[in-house]
């Protein structure tokens, strides 16, 4: 599973089920769901799953993963700002800082409004992202991260934009065995709870619960995760 193992995935899934409490057999939209790391295990638990992502490669991986595990996923290849309104899910999950923050705040608002239209009345959403406060309190200009299997490492070289709460990460991905390197640049803005709640309200959601982790811990300045549950008006 790359930088994330089965243990982390299981903890995240348990958190979603315990905190969101989706009804058995209900329809869940994995919004910006990638290669199905969460969608496939949720489908195995009896939920109807739709996975939306902009990457065809990720969706192909998700389809192969679902086939291997013997479950069905509805695949939607789309920009999250143009979430199809005919999905009409009971719940939506947006996990591991996926989608939100990478573009502009106006793009995030457009995406959330399209998500709003793609959900049934009173549907609930579960948003998990990194906490702005944790990012600032644990800031490092650069550091190495080693993959779980020890074969690759990633050098983060970061700059923080205080005007926009936005980080630029000039990443170097290195294969330890061959020494080959790949450079990637990533920019992302991080939300405080108040900022995330405000954009959710503007998009038509009612923010209801705030947590600092998948274990349901209260949110504090030291919380690494910012988890917010909201309901469609």
UniProtKB/TrEMBL annotation:
Q: Name the InterPro entries on file.
A: Methyltransf_25, SAM-dependent_MTases_sf
| Pfam families noted in UniProt | Methyltransf_25
List, for all copies, the residue spans of the domain called Methyltransferase: 28-121
Specify the protein name.
Methyltransferase domain-containing protein
From which organism does this entry originate? Candidatus Lloydbacteria bacterium RIFCSPHIGHO2_02_FULL_50_13
Q: What is the lineage of its organism?
A: Bacteria, Candidatus Lloydiibacteriota
